[in-house]
Amino acid sequence: MKEIKPADSVLFADMNENERAQAMAFFSAEQATYKKGDFLWGGSGKIPFFALVLRGTVTVCCDEEDGGRTIMAVVTPGMVFGGSLAYLRREADVIPIAATDCKVLQLHPQNLWDYPDSPIARKVHRNFTAMLARRTLEMNTRIQILSKVTLRAKIEALFRAYGARPDGRPFTLPFDRSAMAFFLGADRSALSRELGRMQERGVLEYRKNRFVWKRADRN
Asked: Model confidence over 33-42: pLDDT tens digits?
């Protein structure tokens, strides 16, 4: 999966190199790498930072009373997790876990409260608001996908949400099969069966998270 640069994110949009350096200092930004399965923070208390994913995938999970764990969100390069909670200084029983080896930019929001009137703070506040608005749109997209009646319709809506069309061009989704099943609100076995049926009918070719969607066959 391609690594993005901080400058490619909404949070640092429309900034020149000097402004980006100021913004990075404003957030006390630090790059960190994690191995698959690593926890990025614990599951109680106020979260220590919010983060921009630069490479890899992070799943944000919640521990259940029965000992199970539910995936709340799948975060891929260019997306941010923990922004609202960090800004509001809220405690949250959520745990971000590296679903793959990953690199993130850890960001601390304290200066958004302490120095709201500095020139760079005004630009950062604007981008921070845009970042949260984009996250809301991403959540709305997922709601639209989940509203589809059939699993196949959900799969096709997911493909379209990531820019794919049934034109035979290959594309890659930023999910492994478990994360894809979670995103679609489906059982992993049911998802695998449906993908297999689509492949048997000549609608789809796939290997891991790389797909070729050939035509809009509605059989």
From this structure: 999 999 998 7
- pLDDT reading at 218 higher than 70: no
- For domain 150-213, say whether CATH 2.60.40.10 is its number: no
Model confidence over 202-215: pLDDT tens digits? 999 999 889 999 97
What tens digit of pLDDT does each residue of 129-149 get? Answer: 999 998 888 889 889 999 999
* Integer Cα distance of 83 and 90 in angstroms: 10
Task: Give the phi and the psi of residue 167 in degrees, each rounded to 5.
Answer: -120, 10
| Structure confidence by residue, pLDDT tens digits, 4-22 | 999 999 999 999 999 999 9
- For domain 6-145, give its CATH number from 2.40.340.10, 2.60.120.10, 1.10.540.10, 3.40.30.10: 2.60.120.10
Q: Which helix (H) or strand (E) holds 32?
A: strand 30-34
What Cα–Cα distance (Å) separates residue 137 from each residue in 48, 147, 203?
Answer: 25, 15, 29
Buried b (16+ CB within 10 A) or exposed e, 104-139: bbbbebebbeeeeeeebbebbeebbeebeebbeeee
Helix H or strand E encompassing 117: none
What is the Cα 60 distance to its own chain's centre?
A: 9
Q: Three-state SS string across 17-28, please?
A: HHHHHHHHHHCC
Average pLDDT over residues 149-166: 93
Report the side by side order of strands in the sheet with 204-207: 170-172, 210-213, 204-207
